[in-house]
Amino acid sequence: MKGRFLLVLAIMLALISAGCSTKSSSAKTDSGDWLKEAKLDQTETVDELYEQAKKEGKVVVYSQSSRIKDVKASFEKQYPGIKVEAHDISSNEMVEKIVREQDAGLHNVDVVFIKDTSGIVSKELLKEGRLHKYAPDDITKNIHEQFKDHPGLPFYFSADTVFFNTEKYKEAPVTNWWDLTDPEWKSKVVMPDPLVSAGTLDLLATMVQNSDEMAEAYKEKYGEEIKLNGTENAGYEFIKRLLDNDPIFSKSSGDVTTSIGTPGQDDPPIGIAGSSKARNIEDEGLKMAYTYDLKPRMSIPGTSYLYVADKADNTAAAKLLIRWMAGEADGKAEGFSPYNVLGSWSTRTDVEQHPEQRPMEELNLWKYDPEYLYQHVQEIKDFIMTNQ
Q1: Which residue segment(s) compose the domain that 238 sits in?
Q2: What pLDDT digit, counting tens, does each position of 288-304 carry?
């Protein structure tokens, strides 16, 4: 009996120890030795990295964009002997996957391609040491000044804005965000579900943050001060009135633009989608355009970043892939080509922007504020769920 008791006690202590270990694994990661070996603060030559990467043989990337398949093809052609294992995952799912895997002691991914996702990436994953910045000097010297203090390596941005069907409308039928709340557009606004789409949620939250500008835009449109209907400010009021106007929620910006831009429609909807989906005008023959001129502002910049994941197995290949996707030192690497499209803007000063769009400097955008979003986005989520 005494032996059984000691055995049971030993098992219980082991379980308690395991539980404590699991709990502490969500704290800041101890990556000292790995970081020293990874040398993420150095700028090696491409030849040096390639020689090391060939020994690794592969690189695993989690990507927010399906265009990673094009990067895979060009990278493997440029660097024979290194295979790219690419996973196309939404930003929210990617955050959960990284945390879940690392908490289980699994370090499956080398490169993470993701937006800040309501500040969660910079305020949690980066600070906890789950992701690490790799920003070689020969690339960052050509990054626009406004992006140099950003987390990760920022290599392009797009913006969620209003799309419309160009067969139906010769010019944008809306010029003010409040237009979307008018009876004319009841049940005719398509948009990604803000409870699923981080980009849409961040835009709505930024309107709440800049409620004074939303109030001014209301007055400019209607000629009178806004009257709040039980809401805290004009940003929340916009969300409420938009929801009251029965918008149609889709899973993604791609679904939105397909609904809007499919040719031959008698009465197509308008909607909110990521501006980079404008590439589907050429790729899929969609009849659509997006608008720059919305009061009070067009949108916020949805900047995409490249990171090296903590304790990545293939650090040389990870660095090489990040350099390739960022355009390499001269900005001409084919790895950036899939992202240098209509509706996307490079963060670099040495990359020629798409000729059919306004220069970055002319875009009327709100500042993306990860601190505000991280602190307040759950409140906006709760408000949306309450008013749906």
Answers
A1: 160-299+372-387
A2: 999 999 999 999 999 99
Q: How far is residue 204's CA from residue 283's CA, in Å, rounded to a whole number?
A: 29
Q: How many domains does the chain have?
A: 2
- The enclosing domain of 73 has a CATH number of 3.40.190.10
Exposure string over 43-61, b if 16+ CB within 10 A, otherwise e: bbebeebbebbeebeebbb
CB 193 within 8 A of CB 200: yes
pTM for the structure as a whole? 0.90
The pLDDT score that the predictor gives to residue 334 is: 97
Q: Are residues 245 and 152 in the same domain?
A: no
Distances in whole angstroms, Cα of residue 377 to Cα of each of 63, 207, 246, 261, 343: 23, 11, 22, 31, 26
Residue 28: is its pLDDT beyond 90? no
Could you tell me if 140 and 219 lie in one domain? no
